């Protein structure tokens, strides 16, 4: 047994001694070169792909009228934020995030250039029914209330730039309970969208042309309180109302809708005609709404009343509408909504 083991050991030693060290080195070098080549090829492919994508991105961007300088900025900061540059020129939300990163790194940024970029891409305005992306989207002269330590002050957006918003304290005079460095909240309502509450630190409080202005930084963070369950479509459709007047007689009023949703409708009646009608909150009315290819008949309950100029405007919620009419109305509103959204599709909120 020991003799056999010795024979195996001797054979192994002989094999090792006869192995060509040079050959081993060559084999190891080949494997190393293969590994290096694979890594290099991967990086090369990534480099070529990135160059191709950048070239394609510039081609797409130039079709919107963007300059090479503008496209370089968007490309550079898209890469820094790990955002798809193609989405940055297609959708407003990622565009604003990229621009914000550019502004934060470049205090001498060209504000006029940024505004021109928004205009070229169609991001300079946001429709009233779409949610805000940042406080930069608040319309000038938007009114609201400033809240500080349970006290409220009427305000209006006086001006804005790429970094700050400037709120005018309407008919307010010092002394004020707040000062530079204090945190305040501003609450405002977008009629077709939501109630917003923005919180920010006062960077400055100054007087301009007899007006007192507070300066607050822009933000992407705010509280949004949705006002409506369903999309409200502004449309004028012939509307017949069958109402009881103050003498108890049934009368027919012909007006037009001001807007309509799946749940209800708004309409206005001249003050001179409305004063003779027996209509208050909770009143039930019967109505006929004329569409292009169909007439809908339904009951509705008056939910709100407000005076607008020379008209009294009523908001009514549908009651006991048949499934046939409800399905038709849903399809109508959704179809019209899609038409509007196609116009503003590039404002869609995408993160």
TrEMBL record:
SUPFAM superfamilies: PilZ domain-like (SSF141371). GO terms for molecular function: cyclic-di-GMP binding. The chain crosses the membrane at residues 20-41. The keyword Cytoplasm does not apply. Residues 226-334 form the PilZ domain. InterPro entries: PilZ_domain (IPR009875). Keywords: Cell projection, Cilium, Flagellum, Membrane, Transmembrane, Transmembrane helix. It comes from the Bacteria. This is C-di-GMP-binding flagellar brake protein YcgR, contains PilZNR and PilZ domains. It comes from Persephonella hydrogeniphila. The lineage of its organism: Bacteria, Pseudomonadati, Aquificota, Aquificia, Aquificales.
């Amino acid at each position: 047994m020991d003799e056999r083991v010795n024979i195996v050991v001797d054979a192994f030693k002989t094999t090792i001694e006869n192995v060509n060290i040079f050959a081993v080195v060559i084999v190891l070098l080949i494997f190393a070169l293969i590994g290096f080549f694979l890594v290099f090829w991967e990086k090369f492919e990534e480099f070529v792909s990135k160059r191709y994508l950048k070239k394609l991105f510039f081609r797409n961007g130039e079709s919107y009228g963007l300059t090479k300088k503008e496209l370089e900025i968007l490309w550079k900061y898209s890469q820094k934020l790990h955002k798809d540059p193609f989405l940055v020129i297609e959708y407003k939300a990622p565009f604003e995030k990229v621009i914000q990163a550019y502004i934060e790194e470049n205090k001498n940024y060209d504000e006029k250039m940024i505004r021109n970029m928004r205009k070229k891409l169609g991001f300079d305005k946001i429709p009233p029914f779409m949610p805000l992306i940042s406080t930069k989207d608040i319309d000038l002269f938007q009114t609201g209330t400033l809240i500080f330590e349970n006290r409220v002050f009427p305000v209006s957006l006086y001006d804005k730039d790429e970094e700050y918003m400037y709120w005018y304290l309407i008919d307010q005079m010092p002394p004020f309970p707040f000062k530079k460095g204090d945190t305040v909240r501003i609450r405002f309502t977008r009629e077709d969208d939501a109630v917003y509450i923005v919180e920010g630190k006062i960077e400055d409080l100054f007087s301009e042309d007899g007006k007192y202005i507070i300066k607050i930084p822009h933000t992407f963070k705010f509280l949004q309180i949705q006002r409506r369950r369903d999309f409200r479509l502004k449309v004028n459709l012939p509307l017949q109302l069958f109402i009881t007047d103050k003498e108890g007689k049934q009368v027919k009023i012909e007006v037009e809708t001001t807007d309509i949703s799946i749940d209800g409708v708004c309409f206005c009646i001249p003050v001179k005609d409305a004063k003779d009608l027996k209509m208050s909150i909770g009143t039930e009315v019967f109505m006929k709404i004329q569409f292009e290819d169909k007439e809908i008949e339904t009951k509705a309950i008056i939910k709100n009343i407000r005076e607008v100029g020379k008209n009294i405007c009523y908001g009514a919620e549908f009651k006991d509408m048949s499934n046939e009419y409800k399905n038709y109305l849903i399809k109508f509103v959704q179809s019209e909504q899609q038409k509007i959204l196609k116009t503003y599709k590039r404002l869609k909120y995408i993160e």
